[in-house]
Amino acid sequence: MASTADIRNGLCIKYNNDIFKIVEFLHVKPGKGPAFVRTKMKSLTTGKTLDNTFSAGHKIDVVRVETHTFQYLYNEGNDFHFMNTETFEQITLDKNILDAPDLLKEGTNVMVQINTETESPLSVDMPASVILEVTYTEPGVKGNTATNATKPATVETGAQVNVPLFINEGDKIKIDTASGSYVERIKE
């Protein structure tokens, strides 16, 4: 058993008969009253987020996890297939476990957290950003801008991303996987 002093981002805990991953936390020491830890947790089974407050020193049940590198192979409907890069073992994960499934390109490496007790996958950590090619976007009209004007673009995985007007079809762009937003154009 661990206590609230051990809480950190990415920690997996058992809470209310479910497994949660700590997304954000904040240790609060008010001037009056006892200290506490405010957390934002994501359920690894349903994907829902929960705000919770633990009093200082509260015992938490930590789930032991291992992180392995997997390569994304392909998807069939809501089933996404991955291969362990060390053992070449393949696993199938549901679309709901993934944070940004529409930004996954075949061959992308992701980090999969696996519960060591049950050997079941818990969550998938995407790379911080991905580089994808724009397959369709309307041409930008010069002089039609106020400031920071954007237009919708479709990338090779089928995802929709808002991009600046100077982006054209065939350009490669970097996309932040956490927010799904445009970062920069990649020059070759």
From TrEMBL:
- Residue ranges occupied by any Elongation factor P C-terminal domain in the UniProt entry: 130-185
Compartments annotated for it: namely:
Cytoplasm
InterPro entries, sorted? Elong-fact-P_C, NA-bd_OB-fold, Rib_uL2_dom2, Transl_elong_fac_P/YeiP, Transl_elong_KOW-like, Transl_elong_P/YeiP_cen, Transl_elong_P/YeiP_CS, Transl_elongation_fac_P
What Gene Ontology terms describe where this protein resides (cellular component)? cytosol
Per its record, what are the GO molecular function terms?
Answer: translation elongation factor activity
Q: Which GO terms describe its biological process?
A: peptide biosynthetic process
State the HAMAP family in the record. Answer: EF_P
Family matches, as PANTHER family: ELONGATION FACTOR P (PTHR30053), ELONGATION FACTOR P (EF-P) FAMILY PROTEIN (PTHR30053:SF12)
Family, similarity comment: Belongs to the elongation factor P family.
> Any idea what this protein is called?
Elongation factor P
Q: Which organism is it from?
A: Paenimyroides marinum
What lineage, starting at the top, does this entry show?
Answer: Bacteria, Pseudomonadati, Bacteroidota, Flavobacteriia, Flavobacteriales
Q: Which gene is transcribed and translated to give this protein?
A: efp
